[in-house]
Design goal:
It is built from 11 helices and 8 strands. By secondary structure, the protein is of the alpha/beta class. The protein has a single domain, classed as TIM Barrel, CATH 3.20.20.70. Bound molecules: pyridoxine-5'-phosphate (PXP).
Length: 253
Amino acid sequence: MIPRLGVNIDHVATLRQARGENYPSVVNAATTCFNNGCDQLTIHLREDRRHIQDIDVSAIQLVTKKFGKPLNLEMGCAPEIIDIAIATQPDWICLVPENREEKTTEGGLNLLDSDICQKVANTCKKLKEKIPGIKISFFVESDLSVLHRVAELNGDAVEIHTGDYAMAFLNGNDVGNFLEKYNQAHKFIAQKNIGFHAGHGLTAESVTPLLEQGLFAEYNIGHWIICEALFDGLGPVVSSLKESFQKYQVGQA
Ligand code: PXP
């Protein structure tokens, strides 16, 4: 299987919100991504609504349905956001930690904290009850003690936080320790029969060693794609990134 590319289009909405205009259109962005080989759209409805707005969620969902591709909604565990998720019925939900002061999601869910773990478990249970067929992933660090907690939750995948790896890669540092940790995490997760996804901070260059490892079935990439689109256009950036995935298989490193 060729790894899947999920494109996170939050930053199309960031540009729009910066001026309070109604452009650039997230619907056009979503359509362009699918016309250029993207496998899923990812959006994060944050409590502070700094980029994606409530109305965007349903507008983007119409595009995912038209293309027959999944909508992956990233969200924290706030009751108001849970209600919107239930009303929307996306295909996937990725549960993430959320903190108003952060520039972006800064790390995985700290499931070693029993209060956080309980909140995530309750959210997961409610979403599974209220959204038939929903698949849930947990955004976590590649840490075996956290992954043991994940295994106790009724989830469908983990999304490993690759932000620190990507930063180390871009700074020219050795990333061998990250790759080793991803291998160990994958061994554990594969036994549990749930999906192994990656996301955060990735670029076409930093994703390559991960593709070579063949461990992750899905990559969710946003900021770099939207930045590159300034120079090359969204369609060509998505299409060449997806094209670069074609020579790799999941599970055949
Ligand atoms: N995956 C998750 C869980 C995220 O929170 C984000 C950022 O919203 C991404 C992937 C995409 O990260 P980036 O925009 O850095 O590529």
